[in-house]
Amino acid sequence: MLVAGLTGSAAAGKSAVAELWRRGGVPVASADELAREAVEPGTEALVRIADIFGPEVMRADGTLDRAAVRRIVFRDDGARRRLEALVHPEVRRLLDEWTGRRRDAGAQLVVWEVPLLFETGMEDEVDAVVVVDAPRNVRRRRLVETRGLGGEEADAVMAAQLPAAEKRRKADLVVDNGGTRGELAERAAEALRLLRARGS
User: Fold this and answer.
1) What residues contact 44, with CB distance under 8 A and at least 6 apart?
2) pLDDT tens, residue by residue, 32-50
3) Three-state SS for 64?
């Protein structure tokens, strides 16, 4: 079974590529979704996050206020590292369980969609790395217009990640997403064809 890591800078379009691949029948695990699962009410990680960051990161219904956490950690590297130390090991455990189930089911190719693949050192644990990229000004505009971030917050999110040029350098495949949805679909399909060929 070939394990591909799908990553890219914030708002580059990796989730759009992941969804295209899912529609093509490829099992894709989202680290962001697993991170939400890791901090659901009742989990040890959520209790520890509340202890560290205080009640202001908790909603009235007992769930994590992700926007409040984001505002804290993207202004404070120490806080971001403490959060990652709590969440990343649990995400990794869930990811390993998911991958094992797909292997047992006979999957030939699976994809880990991991925004911080390089930042967490996980690129060495996959068989191929696919980076989705778009020009910086396009990514910043998407963060502001489609995710509702302020300009300063968008800049902080982008600054916290490995530079896009470095990600491209480390990639086995690059999917450029500076154009139309149709162009992205074509490039994603070609990257998937190459991955399947590598795994066959």
Assistant:
1) none
2) 999 999 999 999 999 999 9
3) strand
